[in-house]
């Protein structure tokens, strides 16, 4: 059995393997606009999913789940900005026994309500066209009355299959309150003050929560829904343009950073000035795990009603311009980053978004075992193509890695999920953000560039692919995996008949990496959004 150190050094690479092919995909991002249908419905487009052991020192034993939706938000996108869809069902799913079927689901439903009996704010008796009539400061202060409408939501915890009967459904509450408020998007500094003021305002909408599972387990934590700054780092423009960079800037870390300029100035790439909408919930791990198995799998989804009838004569107010009914139909799915973009064939991308992890073996296994994009890396940069079937990739994405994040289930389902070992002691102990390694389990190879923490944090078992934190550079990890870093790691991870890494010594990189100092150490762990006007 290989030592854990060697295992960790190479396994993180695999964790991104499927994702890494994304470097050559025409729809690059963790999951932004990744399938034909979802481009028509951005409000239900899941963009990134983070799942990690909370690293706020006061929150040991809690797990944070963050599902981002509505991609590529330009901060100045008024006058309506980025309210979520009241006709949609947003969900975060947890599988705690390795069968690819959800055991715990958190469901979010939204409602937008005009103030003043449906008139909103008025001037001379007529409704104004803006979100606010004056500065907005606090959730309970007098200035909150300046808003034209409120965005509220409710959260339901479902134990068992997500469409379970009422006996398996529990209302998530904060004290006696079950309806929560979403802070207004960061319209600008005149409406909401500087970034410190906005963060203090948004912080009032972090709610402590508690509920009891049907089996009697006490569940506690906190919830927040609101606009946040995009945390995904990627050299978007160059990748779209057939990886428009010299080989020396892709194959060598130092050359990549030099080619792109200061990593401090370009740490998030073209997403530096974009926002997203985050659904963040933190729950004690005992509410999510089953028995003695510390491993959970997670993914997020969004669903719309099967039928929709447009109204040719919309009513006044914020009433929907359509009538929706029928069964819920899933239109978005995201577990591991980048899978639908770079692994699933174009003809099956909508199918993947509508599918469940439990069905992945029959629906999508060939895409994992014989990925089509590594050959493009070879054509562009003269790399060797690992042979197929890619059992190394299948182990990471469909079963989990033994001794790291594979379920204790003796026969786990082949299911694509983000997997997390919720153990918080020893090598799995959560680290403060200042000591997190963006290369996660691959951290022994952390580069010597300007944003390297000091001292070097080395291998980081609490990082991707053991869950995913905001700092984790899933692009760089993925680029290295696709070149075959795990080929031959053990008998389960051969690349066809190939038992060694065909590109030893080559560490692909896109030249963009977030700095540790760019992220907070407390829930909801993502940064203050960009204001629409400064």
Structure description:
- The structure is a single chain.
- By secondary structure, this protein is of the alpha+beta class.
- The protein has one domain (4-518).
- It has 14 helices and 15 strands.
- The strands form three sheets. Strands 3, 4, 7, 8, 9, 13, 14 and 15 form an eight-stranded antiparallel β-sheet that branches.
- Strand 5 (122-123) and strand 6 (126-127) form a beta hairpin.
Concise summary:
With 534 residues, the chain is an alpha+beta fold.
Overall structural class, as computed from helix and strand content, comes to alpha+beta
**What is the radius of gyration?**
23 Å
**Beta-strand content estimate:** 15-25%
Uncertain parts: 1-29, 446-451
* Largest sheet descriptor: 8 strands, antiparallel
Percent in helix: 10-25%
Q: What characteristic shape results from the CA principal axes?
A: globular
Features:
8-stranded antiparallel sheet, 14 helices, 5-stranded antiparallel sheet, single chain, 534 residues, 15 strands, alpha+beta
Write the layout of secondary structure elements.
Layout: H1 4-15, H2 17-20, E1 46-53, E2 62-74, E3 88-95, E4 104-114, H3 115-118, E5 122-123, E6 126-127, E7 149-159, E8 169-171, E9 180-182, H4 189-192, H5 195-203, E10 207-212, E11 218-229, H6 236-240, H7 248-251, H8 253-260, E12 274-284, E13 295-310, E14 322-334, H9 339-342, H10 349-353, H11 360-369, H12 374-381, H13 391-399, E15 418-421, H14 474-482
Antiparallel strand pairs: 1-2, 2-12, 3-4, 3-13, 4-7, 5-6, 7-8, 7-9, 10-11, 11-12, 13-14, 13-15
């Amino acid at each position: 059995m290989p030592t854990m150190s060697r295992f960790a050094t190479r396994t993180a690479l695999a964790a991104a393997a499927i994702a890494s092919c994304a470097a050559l995909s025409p729809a690059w991002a963790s999951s932004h606009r990744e399938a034909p249908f979802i481009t028509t419905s951005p409000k239900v487009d899941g963009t990134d999913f983070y799942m990690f052991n909370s690293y706020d020192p006061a929150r040991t034993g809690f797990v944070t789940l963050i599902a981002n939706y509505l991609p590529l938000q330009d901060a100045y996108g008024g006058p309506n900005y980025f309210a979520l869809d009241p006709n949609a069902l947003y969900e975060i799913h947890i599988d705690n026994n390795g069968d690819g079927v959800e055991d715990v689901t958190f469901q979010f439903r939204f409602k937008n309500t005009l103030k003043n009996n449906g008139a909103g704010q008025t001037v001379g008796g007529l409704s104004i066209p803006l979100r606010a009539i004056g500065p907005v400061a606090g959730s309970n202060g007098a200035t909150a009355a300046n808003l034209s409408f409120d965005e509220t939501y409710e959260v339901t915890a479902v134990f068992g299959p997500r469409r379970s009967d009422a006996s398996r459904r529990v209302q998530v509450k904060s004290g006696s309150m079950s309806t929560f408020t979403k802070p207004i998007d960061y319209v600008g500094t005149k409406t909401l003050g500087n970034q410190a003021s906005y963060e203090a305002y948004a912080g009032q909408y972090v709610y402590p929560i508690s509920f009891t599972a049907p089996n009697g387990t006490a569940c506690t934590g906190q919830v927040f829904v609101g606009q946040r700054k995009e945390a995904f780092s990627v050299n978007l423009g160059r990748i779209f343009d057939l990886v428009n960079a010299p080989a020396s800037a892709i194959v060598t870390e130092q050359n990549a950073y030099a080619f792109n300029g200061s990593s401090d100035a370009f740490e998030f790439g073209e997403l530096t000035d974009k926002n997203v909408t985050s659904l963040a919930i933190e729950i004690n791990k005992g509410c999510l795990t089953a028995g003695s198995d510390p491993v959970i799998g997670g993914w997020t989804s969004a669903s719309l009603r099967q039928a929709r009838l447009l109204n040719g004569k919309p009513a006044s107010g914020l009433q929907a311009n359509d009538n929706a009914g029928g069964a819920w139909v899933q239109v978005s799915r995201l577990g591991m980053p980048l899978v639908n973009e770079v692994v699933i064939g174009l003809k099956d991308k909508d199918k993947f978004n509508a599918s469940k992890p439990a069905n992945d073996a029959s629906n999508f296994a060939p895409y994992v075992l014989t990925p089509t994009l590594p050959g493009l890396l070879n054509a562009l940069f003269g790399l060797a193509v690992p042979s197929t079937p890619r059992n190394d990739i299948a182990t990471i994405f469909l079963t989990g890695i033994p001794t790291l994040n594979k379920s204790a289930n003796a026969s786990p389902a082949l299911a694509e999920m983000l997997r997390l070992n919720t153990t918080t002691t020893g090598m799995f102990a959560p680290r403060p953000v200042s000591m997190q390694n963006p290369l996660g389990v691959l951290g022994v190879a952390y580069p010597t560039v300007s944003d390297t923490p000091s001292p070097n944090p080395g291998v980081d078992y609490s990082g991707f692919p053991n869950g995913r934190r905001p700092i984790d550079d899933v692009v760089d990890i993925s680029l290295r995996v696709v070149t075959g870093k795990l080929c031959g790691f053990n008998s389960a991870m051969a690349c066809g008949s190939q038992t060694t890494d065909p590109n030893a010594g080559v560490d692909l990189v896109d030249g963009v990496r977030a700095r540790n100092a760019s992220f907070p150490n407390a829930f909801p762990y993502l940064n203050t959004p960009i204001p629409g006007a400064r």
